[in-house]
């Protein structure tokens, strides 16, 4: 595979073994070879940018971050793109949160993520794994921030019903996308990891055929379709594998690192 200039990786279920960890020393060796070859490294995730920064503290200044499913994009420390949900869309989502309290939500904006008091501590703690700057608030409506996404997790047996409920309530104001294991996100229409990645590709003068991407969930599909070389993880559902050019070993076996070692030398 020649002339690779950009590598984009999803986090949970793809790059990370168990939503938290990866082989740091192994990655550092590969990252050094990529940097020497002039290859850009991008994390494209549904998670908050601050979580990515904490996960890759040595490279925050020289990597790309496509966070919140493409809603907030950084080139190092520099903001490249920040989506903004329309006020009516935010109001509709807040109404959903108050009308259906059994579907918990975290509201994400440029400055932080927020959870309303009255939501379970268990949900707050769960979301805190993915949003490292998150606060309790009395009412979403009182938050002064540029809002671009709402995130939830429900039992997988209830996922489709909850996503359909939200889709019906928000209409065309927001898009609803699954992110695996009962998690789903409500994002600004037209925003995706592919859109976020495009901002960085255009900024760096990189063409799709020069990109490699790895993913495992529905929110990775557009990104996998965009790039010239796409990998679905072995642990991904068939719908993702059907889109990808190749299958990488599962995340539990550091599948991304295995492929990158093949691409950039062991």
Keywords:
8-stranded mixed beta sheet; 266 residues
Descriptive notes:
The chain starts with 5 loop residues before the first strand and ends with a helix. The longest helix has 15 residues. Helices cover 35% and strands 24% of the residues. It has 266 residues and is of the alpha/beta class. It contains 10 helices and 14 strands. It has an 8-stranded mixed β-sheet with strand order 5-4-3-2-1-12-13-14, with helices on both faces. 45% of the residues are buried. Strand 3 and strand 4 form a beta hairpin.
Number of helices: 10
**Element-by-element helix/strand order:** EHHEHEEEHEEHEEHEEHEHEHEH
Summarize model confidence as the mean pLDDT. Answer: 95
Head-to-tail CA distance between termini: 15 Å
Strand count, sense and closure of the main sheet?
8 strands, mixed
* Uncertain regions spanning at least 5 consecutive residues: none
Beta-strand residue fraction: 15-25%
Summarize the structure.
By secondary structure, the chain is α/β, with parallel strands linked by helices.
Topology:
Elements: E1 6-9, H1 11-15, H2 24-36, E2 40-44, H3 49-55, E3 64-67, E4 72-75, E5 78-82, H4 87-99, E6 106-109, E7 113-116, H5 121-128, E8 134-137, E9 147-153, H6 156-170, E10 175-180, E11 183-187, H7 193-204, E12 211-215, H8 221-226, E13 229-233, H9 238-241, E14 246-248, H10 255-264
Parallel strand pairs: 1-2, 1-12, 2-3, 7-8, 12-13, 13-14
Antiparallel strand pairs: 3-4, 4-5, 6-7, 6-9, 9-11, 10-11
């Amino acid at each position: 595979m020649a002339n690779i200039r950009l590598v984009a990786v999803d986090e949970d279920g793809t790059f990370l073994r168990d939503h938290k960890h990866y082989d740091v020393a192994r990655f550092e060796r590969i990252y050094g070879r990529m940097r020497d070859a002039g290859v850009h490294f991008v994390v494209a995730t549904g998670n908050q940018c601050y979580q990515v920064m904490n996960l890759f503290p040595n490279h925050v200044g020289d990597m790309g971050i496509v966070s919140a499913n493409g809603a907030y994009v950084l080139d190092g420390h520099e903001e490249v793109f920040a989506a903004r949900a329309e006020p009516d869309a935010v109001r509709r989502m807040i109404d959903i949160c108050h009308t259906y309290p059994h579907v918990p939500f975290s509201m994400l904006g440029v400055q932080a993520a927020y959870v309303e008091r009255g939501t379970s501590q268990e949900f707050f703690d769960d979301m805190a794994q993915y949003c490292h700057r998150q606060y309790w608030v009395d009412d979403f409506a009182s938050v002064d921030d540029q809002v671009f996404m709402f995130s939830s997790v429900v039992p997988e047996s209830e996922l489709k019903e909850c996503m359909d409920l939200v889709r019906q309530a928000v209409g065309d104001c927001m898009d609803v996308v699954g992110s695996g294991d009962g998690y789903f996100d409500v994002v600004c229409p037209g925003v995706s990891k592919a859109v976020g990645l495009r901002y960085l590709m255009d900024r760096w003068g990189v063409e799709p055929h020069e990109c490699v991407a790895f993913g495992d969930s529905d929110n990775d599909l557009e990104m996998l379709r965009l790039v010239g070389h796409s990998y679905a993880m072995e642990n991904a559902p068939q719908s993702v594998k059907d889109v990808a050019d190749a299958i990488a070993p599962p995340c539990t076996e550091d599948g991304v690192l295995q492929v990158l070692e093949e691409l950039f030398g062991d």
